[in-house]
């Protein structure tokens, strides 16, 4: 799979007094992208958590290029950077309606056993769906 996209409108509550998206909200947008990327593989976060697997973020990098504003239709494009091991890494591009790049970002997450609180390798059910 090359990438997955999710599009939505910026809500008023996500903006500051100038009508511009508050910078901290972009991390939530990236999470929406990851969740939908996994869902496109047929895997949900909820299902993984029920199986004892958590995916905490251990690295977040965001490069802000331009601002999203209230009521803009934005698209989060999520791409897997490489085959996951104990870590899974994503690159993101957030675009506006005219395909202008607003944000470029990267996250690294680690697969964790939720009971033992220890890192584990990427579950086979994800690896199988990638091939």
Automatic annotation (TrEMBL):
UniProt keyword GTP-binding, yes or no: no
Keywords noted in UniProt: Hydrolase
GO molecular function list: hydrolase activity
EC numbers: 3.1.2.-
Signal peptide: none
UniProt-listed InterPro entries: 4-hydroxybenzoyl-CoA_TE, HotDog_dom_sf, YbgC/YbaW
CDD domains according to UniProt: 4HBT
One Pfam family named in its UniProt record: 4HBT_2
SUPFAM superfamilies named in the record: Thioesterase/thiol ester dehydrase-isomerase
Enzyme class: hydrolase
Protein family per UniProt: Belongs to the 4-hydroxybenzoyl-CoA thioesterase family.
Designated name of the protein: Thioesterase family protein
């Amino acid at each position: 799979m090359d990438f997955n996209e999710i599009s939505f409108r910026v809500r008023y509550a996500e903006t500051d007094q100038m009508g511009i998206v508050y910078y901290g909200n972009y991390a939530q947008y990236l999470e929406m992208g990851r969740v939908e990327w996994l869902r496109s593989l047929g895997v949900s976060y909820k299902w993984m958590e029920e199986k004892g697997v958590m995916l905490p973020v251990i690295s977040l990098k965001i490069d802000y290029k331009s601002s999203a504003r209230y009521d803009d239709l934005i698209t989060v494009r999520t791409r897997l950077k490489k085959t996951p091991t104990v870590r899974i890494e994503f690159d993101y591009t957030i675009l506006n309606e005219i395909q202008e790049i607003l944000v470029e970002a990267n996250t690294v997450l680690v697969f964790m056993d939720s009971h033992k609180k220890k890192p584990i390798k990427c579950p086979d059910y994800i690896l199988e769906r990638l091939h």
